[in-house]
Amino acid sequence: MDLFSKARSRLDEAARHIDIHSDVLEKLRYPKETLAANLLVRMDDGSRKSFKAWRCRYDDTLGPTKGGIRYHPAVNMEEVMTLAFWMTFKCAVAGLPFGGGKGGIQVDTKTLSKAELERLSRTYAHAFSRFIGPDRDIPAPDVSTNSIVMGWIADEYGSIIGHPSPAVITGKPIALGGSRGREDATGRGGYLSLHRMLDDFGLKPHSSRVAFQGFGNAASHCARLLSSDGFKIVAASDSRGAIAAKGDHLDLDAVLAHKQQSGALDGAPGTRSISPADLIAYDCDILIPAALENQINQNNAPTVQAKVILELANGPITPEADAILEKAGVTVIPDILANAGGVTVSYFEWVQNRAGFYWPESDIRQRLADMLEPSADAIRDLARHHGVSLRTAAYILALKRIATAIAAQGTQDFFSQVERR
Length: 421
Hints:
Largest sheet: 7 strands, mixed
Low-confidence stretches: none
Helix content: 40-55%
Distance between the termini: 45 Å
Radius of gyration: 21 Å
Shape: globular
Order of helices and strands: HHEEEHEHEHHEHEEHEHEEHEHHHHH
Strand order of the largest sheet: 9-8-7-6-10-11-12
Number of helices: 15
Strand content: 15-25%
Number of strands: 12
């Protein structure tokens, strides 16, 4: 339970700075419910293979739980619980009427055919059909899942209940009820969060160098937005290696074209290979971890040269590394703000599905900015007021919003004052 206990320490730290009733902390200490399943799938060769799977609904105080489904060989119940915990606070930071949820299947998707991947996804929908629902728990894409996978799950769920229910899942193809603006939402949310605080860091776009640790969908969209403003993208890594620009910045079009063709960043035109470990320590102004959790730890945190870290991934910095970075004067824009763009636009998709009315992309982008920018401002103000890091301030903001909802149902103080008859 090390990953989960470390994540929960963020909650305890935030609670030290504000007056929070013990009822609130007791409710948020553990998940509301977690379901495990064994998915038995017929493979292309006629054999059957089983896959471990989970879904966790951490807290639904603010509304139905919301969170992605991760397909990864190392995923486990502890990781799913931790991701659901983070989603609970991320939704509260963004001001969404959602609680936090998460799911996962222990699988290496590279070993599956497309037909096997579809059967696995539909089997997941069957196994968790009573756990999910548009008013209960709404999944979305995560690591190694995409809009097609979400479309399969939505279709299977509709077959089970007897009618289409597009609001059961978000991140779907637009033709199946998906939202415009969803594809770049996570990267755009990180871009908006960084821009909202840029002046505080004394950084200017045309003189700022940016490195990405992880270069999937969210990172590539964030990189394009930053590059269009003049930021210099100087290095990037993926699961197969890392590259740095031979000149003063990467040619993003050439790099992304090479990655799409070859499946890797390494060997892209105008680049040189570097060690993935060197990416964390690369000479840059802004470091953007956009891969998996715990990538920056007590061993490599002292090597970080960046002035600012934007957490586009979930939980990429351990609590031990946080302390090292804070002491070194490195500012971290926390994940529960920095990558909240994805779940915010997922909320818009859910709203559009339920209303049967769909907004143009320009409206989606403006609504996203309207929700995230005030949260960024509130986090910055709380950090100054309490003299804490942006991460602790983000948890304070989320905790206050959740606590207000819990208190509205009555805490111990309320019930102890009720006259006994």
